[in-house]
């Protein structure tokens, strides 16, 4: 597909052999055989459902574990270089264990704030890994669309985690009228902002919250217009068989 970066067939024999091992075709197509983002999207939908129910720090920690598993799965299916994948796995698992220890130590608000901040970092890395891989697809398949939709969901989760960090680390009420900012409400606020629905039942009261809400709305619209819509318009239903 024009406009998406691909792999050139030129280069040293060693590079061509390495690309062949990873699944590149000789014509320069960058769609590798094992790109499977349906499971990644399924895990995100599962986490979305979990976020609809009331949860404490333990519930948030469980969601963090699911997000880390999602990241590791995204790294695997996105064919990240082995050394980079190993480094990501070590950092993410170490950070998650450190956050769990902080929570077990009884650091209530601080621990919840750090947990949400770390969760947003995990989600940011996952967005980068998926989008970077999707942009190498010259042929847009169902897996490409699933990858883009996964990244879109991840943006909503990421901003919800950022809002959660602010709520726990800043004593100032996050919502106007002092409304309670639970994890479920923050997820609701994040996704209604991302999709620019703007019901108005929850409104950020602080300057930081308002600025982040505007940034999320812009990110959601730009992502839909520049990536998802473009991929859908270039989708070729018969191209999915080439991925097998």
Largest sheet: none
Overall average pLDDT = 80
H-E string: HHHHHHHH
Structural class: mainly alpha
Cα gyration radius (Å) = 20 Å
Distance between the termini: 19 Å
- Give the strand content: under 5%
List the uncertain runs: 1-11, 13-33
Total DSSP E strands: 0
Helical content band: 55-70%
What characteristic shape results from the CA principal axes? globular
Number of helices: 8
Task: Give structural attributes.
244 residues; mainly alpha; 8 helices; 66% helix; globular; disordered N terminus
Task: Describe it.
- The protein has eight helices and no strands.
- Mean pLDDT is 80; it is low at 1-11 and 13-33.
- The longest helix is centred in the middle third of the chain and has 28 residues, at 142-169.
- Helix 2 (38-51) packs antiparallel against helix 3 and helix 6 runs antiparallel to helix 8.
- It is 66% helix and 0% strand.
- By secondary structure, the protein is mostly helical.
